[in-house]
Protein 1
Amino acid sequence: MTVPFDGIALGCDYNPEQWPREVWPYDVELMRGAGVGFVTLGVFSWALLEPSPGRFDFDWFDEVLAVLHTGGIAVDMATATASPPPWLTTAHPEILPVDARGATLWPGGRQAWCPSSPVFRDHALRLVAEMARRYGDHPAVRLWHVSNELGCHNGRCYCDVSAAAFRVWLTDRYGSAEKLNDAWGTAFWSQHYGGFDEVLPPRLGTATPNPTQELDFARFCSDELLSHYRAERDVLRAHSAVPVTTNLMVTAHQSEQDNHRWGRELDVVAQDHYLDHRLADPHAEQSFASDLTRGVARGAPWLLMESAPSAVNWQPVNRAKRPGELLLDSLSYVARGADAVGFFQWRASRAGAEKFHSALVPHAGPDSAAYREVVGLGAALARIGEVAGSRVRADVAVLFDWECWWACDQPSHPSGELRYLDAPTRWHRAITGLGATADVVAPGTELRGYRLVVVPTLYLCSDATAAALAEYVRGGGHVLVTYFSGLVDESDHIRLGGYPGAFRELLGVRSEEFAPLLPGETVTLDDGSSADLWTESLAAPDAEVLARYVDGPLPGTPALTRRAVGAGAAWYVATRLDDAALSRLADRLTREAGVTRPEEPVVGVELVRRGRYLFVLNRGDAPAAVPAHGTELLSGGQVDGTVTVAAGAAAVIREGT
Ligand code: GAL
């Protein structure tokens, strides 16, 4: 898996159909000046490439490609199937997606198609074959880009075609209705199925839906989209040797795809990421998403396909980047494994739903402060080109699982306040805040190379994952498990005999009952920590108790435990610690486990080690001094002992001589 562009490439979506022909050569000239190395072409071009059924118009596209190629710009070629043209939805309204209430989602926006529709797929694959035959060995085309953000708007469709496909998927998974009845626990609420023909997608109903039906439907929807990806990829491969990808959305918003499964199918993992200023700490989410994308790529370099040069246009208030932020934000992706930094889009649109979304060339044109930042970014990426291909090394793994997310966030659980993303993102933030590097990986990942493994709210957990963690601790590893972990198996069935089921033995603890806290309610621990959300009636028959509650529903009950196992240890935190207490615990754990990190954290500074390169991104208000030796690539200067990075600036140091 290598990113097929040169160095650390700067790139963008290019939508030339929105501009007159005369602009194209000028665009390419500007791109060259800014150091743009690749563009993604054709994402939403279907309606113009196939203006009526079976009639293709590639002339204008050939011309664009020729201009780009002459300018030395590489192309990430979209298959153009993301959004069906109006003639297709007019002729075949049955391809439109339907929501859980049975309402049709009409065309007029984008991506209005049902992932299970054979009619849509036939039309899409016909276009893909045309594209592949025509451009499969074009010298400018270095990468294929299937569809666009598969599942972004149409991830779950509940129409009759989807229902039939769901039944086929269930038949493959279970083989018999009896097995499905067992897995779905249909003895409850008179849900027993006499055959697969009685099964429906979880459409809006009267009461809490069957949780395993919901979970299987989420799995099915991810698989349907993946099968669409595979179908397009296979057509491409039949005509072209160029690698294939699609842009994933590995973020804290989107949970329609099991990206760990998807990552294995892509020739190179590509990710779209937009800072979300609705969050308390958008950059913490950026770092988490990047480290998780690297996990999806199983450690290999990945491609940031899209991000925003400045503001987006889909948040309640769209914050523009301040001077210098474009460089820092872009370097953060590179530090965490990106070998290319792409943006949506080249030129800000004059019309359409995204005309207020920022672009590399703003409405003001190239004579603008924003464009000068883009040119500066291009120059900076050119200076750090040698970083490409190097790998991030992390001592800490945080386990993250999409199936667990789907199961954990269902209704009718002990606390509706408990959301899956909370614990993984907070633990990641606490650990990286100490200056340590963390991978965010799938539960099945080989753990031997890590010094510390964090298992945050791994509500759903297989026997194999539990066994691998126990084995890891026996081998001298350190594991921290949080509340609401190990409770159910892959069918979302409770593991009986006391909580936290799968991890009881490893942790040496047992709970009989949960006692979640009401919103706003807090508890104090006898080590001075404060916590909220969760408590449970924990006993620690085979573990050392490190802290107990002094108040709340369970005074005197263990809240934090540690079980020593040879040179390793298994920790359990049974409540949600506040930020300060979480950071203290992360500090203690990383020191005890021998995790590489600075002796004292440098507040406000993002510190990441990628291969022999140290990235220092100073997001604070004061200059930061960090120990380092080597060459600073952005300035070309030597660093001998300490690098001092001004507020809002960055350094990338090749360590050693
Ligand atoms: C992505 C999408 C782009 C553009 C961008 C900015 O979701 O792939 O086409 O819409 O967001 O909002």
Protein 2
Amino acid sequence: MAMLRFDSPAASEITHPVVYAARRQWLKQVAGGAAGSVLAAWAGREALATEKPGKRPALVGTSSSVPGAITMDKATRYEDATSYNNFYEFGTRKSDPARYADTLVTDPWAIEIEGLVKRPFKLGLDDLLKLSPMQERIYRLRCVEGWSMVIPWVGYSLSALIGRAEPLGSAKFVELVSLADAQQMPGVRSSVLDWPYTEVLRLDEAMHPLALLAFGMYGEVLPKQNGAPVRLVVPWKYGFKSAKSIVKLRFVEPQPRSTWGRAAPTEYGFYANVNPNVDHPRWSQATERRIGEDGLFTRRRKTLMFNGYEPQVGQLYAGMDLQRHF
Ligand code: MTE
């Protein structure tokens, strides 16, 4: 007769140490009552209501209490945030995504979880929307090209989905894969990038509460050109790390290259943290132009280390040579 065994779980079944540590940190922050001060700051903001065109279904969240989740910078106009985009699957010009993304089919949609996880699975959009409470986060997004925006996103921490995925102890990186369907995305027919578009984060970066899985912006579901129906927003990194229209999360051990890393490894480092002290090989990263502040005499803003999120994320890179790991 077969014996029932109740010995300790295999190492592969133990919660990843990074996931475990982050869960504890998260609980501490919530218990510490960071919410009060953020809500007080929120009350003082100018209303964003006028920025909403009201064409898309509403998607609202409660104001996030994650430290650093709500910048006091003035939000970019909705019209600017939705008409000046990078989404190479729809073309390489800033105006292409708004022009051509209407062919993207965002429903049905699902994200597949695969690689070094307890059990691979697929989660449909309805389940993704219900996975964790929706929060509003107002983040700066700084593009490597030298422009920036401030956008009120709606979503929840990527850590919620990673927690559900149950990565194995051996998983060190998470690869985020965007849809690449030439039928819906005219840019995919060109060889300008190596499709599908992928981005990669170290697992502890992906677990940081500020790494956001976004489903909406300005209180509505995401417009297609902004990465509908679900995208990443990593506010302390250059915008290209924030993969749009995600269909897969793959947990891996050796560090994979991302799309931009494959396209131009000397220009797009793996870390891609916003760092005014490390120039892009072809231009300075010391300053930025805030979209919508385009007056004749408007000065460029100084770019801040980690895009201003150093107090929250600096610790992730303690002891690293950020000139080499750019
Ligand atoms: N994701 C996909 N799938 N394809 C892309 O071309 N461009 C990246 C990033 N995510 C890109 C992508 C770049 S370069 C930037 S700056 C941001 O998306 C732009 O996001 P936004 O449209 O919200 O401004």
